[in-house]
Amino acid sequence: MAEQARSRRNTILVAGTAFGAAALSTTGDLIFNVFHETTAKLVSIGATVAFGGIMAYQAVKARGEQSLGAVAPDRGRRHQLERVEPLVGRAALLDSLTTLLRDVPTPSRRALPVNVRDSQAKIVVVHGAAGVGKTTLALNAAHRVKDSYPDGQLYVNLQGDGETPKSSREALEDLLLSLDVARADLPADVDGRAARFRSLTNDQRLLIVLDNAHRSEQVRPLLPVGAGCSVLITSRKPLSGITLREPVPVSLPDESEALDVLAHYAGRERVTSDPAIALDITRFCGRLPLALRIVGSKLAQRPDLSLSDMKARLEDEKLRMRELVLEDESLHACLMLTYRDLDQATRTVFGLIASLAVGRLTNWHFEHAGTARGAAFAVCDELIEVSLMEVEGGEEASTSYRVHDLVRVFAAEQYDLLPPEERGRHEARLVKAYRDAAVGLAARRAPELGAEVSAGEIGDPVGESGAGWVSAEQERLRWAIGRARSLGMNAEAAEIGEALSYFLDDINLSPGAADWLFDAPPSETRPRVLASLRRARASAAVAEGAPDTALTLLGRDEADAGADPVGRARDEMVVARAYAAKKDFREALDHMTTATDELRAADDPWHVLNSLEKLGEFQRWRGRPELAEQSQREALRLAERTGDLRARARLRRTLAETLGYLRRPEEAAPLLESAVRDFRVLNDRRWEGAALYALGKIYRLLGRRQEAGERYDRAEEIFGPMGERHWVGRVNNARIRVLAGSGRLDEAAATAGAALRIFEEVGDELWQAHTERDIGWLHIRSGRPAAALEPLTHAIEVTARAGDAYAGSMARHLRGVAYRELGRYAEALADLEAALETYRSGSYEWNEAAVTHDVVRALRSDGRAAEADSLEETAAASNPVFVRMRGRDGAQAVPDED
After folding, report:
1. SS3 for 206?
2. Angstrom distance (rounded) from CA 158 to CA 177
3. Residue range 49-76: average pLDDT?
4. Please, which residues have CB within 8 angstroms of residue 872's CB and are 6 or more apart in sequence?
5. Which backbone phi and psi does 836 adopt, to 5 degrees?
6. Per-residue confidence band for 456, with pLDDT thresholds at 50, 70 and 90
7. Are residues 641 and 664 in contact, defined by beta-carbon separation less than 8 angstroms?
8. What per-residue confidence (pLDDT) applies to 455?
9. Cα 2 to chain center, whole Å?
């Protein structure tokens, strides 16, 4: 009887507390909103007592017919966390979430809070893309902290990633049943169930895990108010509609963490046996934990399947999604559950953009891929909300977006399923947008194109220079040309090609690509367009090492000679570059001088800038560095005026090289340091490497040999993987003097041999000559002047044919020293005098002083002391550099260094 009485009292207590709290949950907010704080407390206490008595009586009456021997409710239903795989590679994120969930106060039982904010449960939203590991993270954290929630840990799968998300009413039923509410006592509607749930949890310490939430509206009725409760929600959306939430975004693991995930499932020994291949696999999986788990599990099931075999299976983008399936797990199915809920317009725009080459995505792409520009922001917002896309830029002007590789592949596959006619309509619209943008940007360099497109049609592709946009979009512009031809938009294809021809210095063309990109369709008859496309093919031929092809393309007959002076001048620039590629710097200088004069007369500032840049180089090679400096400074001023960061960086590099020839390295260094930074910002690796190479030369002239060597190393790290053999050879050539200057003559000789082999392989005779000149110098430095004669003589012959007066004079200077060391003074003086004549014709005070010292030594060695004294006296009076070099011996000194 005593046991029955206790059971009966417990029933009354539970009923009274539950029903009283339920009533108060519907009136509590009203009490605290209407009355002042003290009065509210009294009213609240009174209401609690009243409801408690009434509800207790009702509970006794309702259960009067039940057996007095009823069993106490099973509280095991309150501890129902799902079992979960261990979380691999995300220790920091797990620790952070665990700390957040453990910070929960102990509620004051059966007392309403005075401060509403203090009464709020902690709501943590773990959100991120499909397959990123949100549920695994949440459940691992929940298991860690369950001791902090002694009243229970409840779990509900809201099925937001399923065909039919669970309704709030169904979820509340699960939660209330877990809290021992009889099914017969469940309120019928959502509001009633939510009120009952809040009342039962108000003074509890509960952890509630709501997995796979679909929307804020689904979750909001499931939230308790008790300060001792925490709600851990996982969702692909951040659920910003829920107030007082703690957002925990889950991003991709880094490379090391991704390898840990793969190793956990595939086996650590297999991964560590070939870490490079394993790393490739993680990249093909986009470091997505779901993909890594599938691939790792497949490898574990198939010991005969090597890492290389799996890599080969994943390499083909079009087949990759088929590999990411294992039993009931499929990345395709996982993504489809999110994709199907997108608006149809969003799916189409997203699929079209996903079909383009990988690259930066901005609002411009979404505005021009959709049917209405105003809908672009809605499309972006929807994709970001469901974690199919991420924001990369913070400021509005530079906002950009990133799409995970596997999501991109998936979206492109879905787009390919659309009817061809529908795809054609959307693609034609985007092709037209690319045409308008490219032509509009090219009009800044070729003003005559301004009439081809209105400013309103261009839009603002990115808030940066045209060169930056074209460089970033070059693969997509190629797509636009090809798609335009397939859609019968031949005029647009030709116009995009014409626009692209004005950015050849800003893009990378693979061999032979120009013949396709700049091929005029048979229907194209516009002279301006035809001339631009022909000029583009000629420029590409020069870059590919086929200068004769360029000269053939730009050959003109007499009838054409007087037409279009601007076009003729632009052609002349390409002709000059072709002659430079043929190592005929005399012709190159003549043609570039003509081009510059004609472009000035035509008021064509962009092409004046480019012609001056090359004119300066040719003037420097022809032994007139002071004229080169003038040309390049003028070009730099024009580049700064246009605001083109790429052109400015390129001109700073070119001018700095000339300043190095003029022995003003202290002025050159900051220009090159700035150029390196700018090319890095532009992500132009090739020009960054070229600037580092030039900076190494300047640091060497400043006596900073270690820093010079470091810049050469960084340049080679860029050029090596790019397959730029010519540049790797130049870097090796530059290292010769750094090594020799440090007394490491054997290493310098080995480096010279490596450089020479590269130039022989690529067929660059002029750089072979430059390297042979340095090999000759190494022989002199090592006391073998006779061995120096052959390479130096060959260098003199090659540079003479090319018209490279400066390089030829350097070789003559060294051969003169070799002859002097051999006692062949007449030949020595002939070479030294020839070099001296070139240096005196330009502003080469340093070189002139260095050669003069060697002439003085040769005269003294030949017994002509009076002539030597006279020359020495004259040189000291006219050239201060000569005095600073007192005692310099060309047989020992490093060329170009004091």
Report:
1. strand
2. 16
3. 41
4. 852, 856
5. -60, -40
6. low
7. no
8. 57
9. 76
497 conformational bin, left if phi > 0, alpha if psi -120 to 50, beta if neither = alpha
434 contacts 476 by C-beta, under 8 angstroms:
yes
What span, in angstroms and rounded, lies between the C-alpha atoms of 521 and 532?
14
158 in Cβ contact with 213 (< 8 Å): yes
Q: Is the sign of the CA dihedral 803, 804, 810, 814 positive or negative?
A: negative
Query: Which residues have CB under 8 Å from 358's CB, separation 6+?
Result: 405, 408, 475
Residue 61, exposed/middle/buried by CB under 10 A (0-12, 13-18, 19+)?
exposed
Which residues lie across from 390 on neighbouring strands? 402
Question: Beta strand pairing status for 325-326 and 329-330?
Answer: antiparallel
Which distant-in-sequence residues (6+ apart) come within 8 Å of 696 by Cβ?
707, 708, 709, 710, 711, 712, 715, 731, 734, 738
What are the beta bridge partners of residue 155? 209
Alpha carbons 366 and 362: distance in angstroms, whole number: 7
Residue-level pLDDT at 898: 58
Question: pLDDT-based confidence at 377, cuts 50/70/90?
Answer: confident
Q: Taking CA 14 as the corner, what is the angle to CA 12 and CA 15, rounded to the nearest 5 degrees?
A: 65
Question: What pLDDT is recorded for position 460?
Answer: 54
- Strand segments, DSSP code E, in 78-199 are 122-127, 152-157
Looking at every residue in the chain, the average pLDDT score rounds to 86
Please give the Cα distance from 440 to 498 (Å, whole number).
12
Question: Where is 402: in which H helix or E strand?
Answer: strand 401-402
Amino acid identity for residue 575 in this structure: V
User: What does the alpha-carbon distance between residue 575 and residue 380 come to, in Å, rounded to a whole number?
Assistant: 48
Record the tokens describing residue 620, joined without a space.
Answer: 């420097």
- CB neighbours of 488 closer than 8 A, spacing ≥ 6? none
pLDDT band for 464, please (50, 70, 90 cuts).
low
